[in-house]
Design goal:
It contains six helices and 24 strands. It is mainly beta. It holds the Pfam family Jacalin.
């Protein structure tokens, strides 16, 4: 929901009433209706009022009012393991979008997990607020904005399920807004197109009233999603929540219709993962895409060799599959140690330990245990450790996480034996 939180002196948004009062009412409705995850845009100078009446346990801290903040925040029932704010590379001066550091946010939402962290489900959420306006400079900036998000997703959400929801300032019916349509070509599904338009992307303009009493008209606010081999997402409902966000006299609370989608999810049938262990440093890596291409009801990847490097900390992790495919992540420091697995021997358990180096949390130690009772270790154990056990009938076949010269964060990918 774009909450129209620009200072009243700069932008009235055509919304009746006092903005602080409206923000408090919006927050109370967020709490009343109990949404699982909410992205807000234009949450600038009335942020404290919005949060004062909301009760979600996990909420991002404001980045500030105008002109310091980006106006993007998230309120959620679920915690996350990573959160970042990214400023747009390009903005249009003509529409005033350069007056604040607009951009997008990224978070890796911890949707589900076992009590012992052996299995976990994450969804990458992106909150966007692109350049507004319809002049040539606005459209060019907006194209750049969406392409920037797409590039970030390709790098930082590889192998993961993703939901993008926010103020895209884009219409499929606007000929200049080609970037939003490129997301559809790139594997994303628009929940509105899917459920309200029968899967047909509109070419003719159909503007929404505010509040909207129909759900087939198009707003600039979008919800797009994709699944991954680790988790399947399916949108089951889409609607404009306009009737739920009204003042007592029937006036709107924002110049945008709130946009809602409901999803079901299921863990992967052939690939799953453990909880992430470590911290949000280094560059994201994922073996999921490679493993998905080698996994089916009749094809099951199996490690033939494990190779770890470590000394005072864990420098790298790697394995070679039985078909020769090598999966290695991290740096070249430390001492290498390898273990060749037998034809009927599986990697079934891993223990990780973490510690602090230069003020940052890193993975210090790994120990792998096989179904034959053999083990391989690297690095230095600490007092802060966790053990990950493959589900019954499954095995560890790869990795996801973040690394640079050393391993900063790690999780394990499972596949059936």
């Amino acid at each position: 929901m774009n909450v129209a939180g620009l200072p009243a002196i700069l932008q009235g948004n055509g919304v009746p009433g006092d903005k602080a009062t409206n923000a408090r009412l919006i927050g109370s409705k967020f709490a009343q209706y109990g949404y699982d995850a909410i992205h807000v845009q234009e949450d600038f100078n009335y942020h404290a009022h919005l949060y004062a009446t909301d009760n979600h346990p996990y909420r991002t801290a404001t980045s500030g009012g105008v002109p310091f903040g980006d106006g993007l925040n998230t309120l959620s029932k679920y915690d996350w393991v990573a959160f970042r704010r990214i400023k747009w590379d390009q903005c249009s001066i003509g529409s005033g979008d350069c007056l604040t550091p607009k951009g997008f946010t990224f978070m890796r939402l911890a949707l589900s997990g076992s009590s012992d962290s052996t299995t976990a489900v994450y969804i990458d959420l992106y909150n966007i607020h692109t350049d507004a306006g319809v002049e040539a400079g606005d459209i060019a900036a907006r194209q750049s904005n969406i392409n920037q998000v797409a590039a970030y997703i390709a790098a930082w959400s590889a192998g993961n399920a993703v939901v993008i929801f926010g103020d895209a300032n884009s219409r499929y019916s606007r000929t200049g807004d080609t970037a939003v349509r490129s997301l559809l070509a790139g594997g994303f599904t628009d929940a509105w197109v899917q459920l309200q338009r029968g899967g047909v992307v509109p070419t003719a303009e159909s503007l929404c009233a505010n509040p909207s009493t129909v759900h087939t008209c198009e707003t600039v606010d979008k919800i797009l999603y994709r699944s991954s081999p680790l988790v399947t997402l399916r949108a089951t409902a889409f609607r404009y929540e306009s009737s739920r966000f009204l003042q007592a006299n029937g006036s709107v609370l924002s110049d945008h219709n709130p946009v809602y989608a409901d999803f079901t999810w299921s863990a992967g049938a052939l690939l799953r993962q453990s909880a992430l262990f470590g911290a949000d440093y280094g560059t994201w890596f994922s073996d999921v895409a490679v493993l998905a291409g080698k996994t089916s009801a009749t094809r099951k990847p199996k490690p033939a060799t494990l190779t770890f490097r470590g000394a005072s900390r864990l420098d790298s992790v790697g394995l070679a599959l039985s078909d020769g495919t090598a999966l290695t992540h991290g740096g070249s420091g430390g001492t290498a140690a390898s273990l060749a697995l037998g034809a009927s021997e599986y990697w079934v358990e891993a223990r990780l330990c973490k510690g602090e180096k230069d003020g940052k949390t890193r993975v210090f130690y790994i120990r792998a245990a096989t179904s034959a009772g053999r083990s391989l270790a690297a690095g230095t154990a600490t007092a802060s450790c966790a053990t990950f056990v493959a589900p019954q009938g499954w095995q560890i076949v790869g990795f996801v996480g973040q690394a640079g010269d050393e391993v900063d964060q790690l999780a394990f990918v499972y596949a059936p034996r």
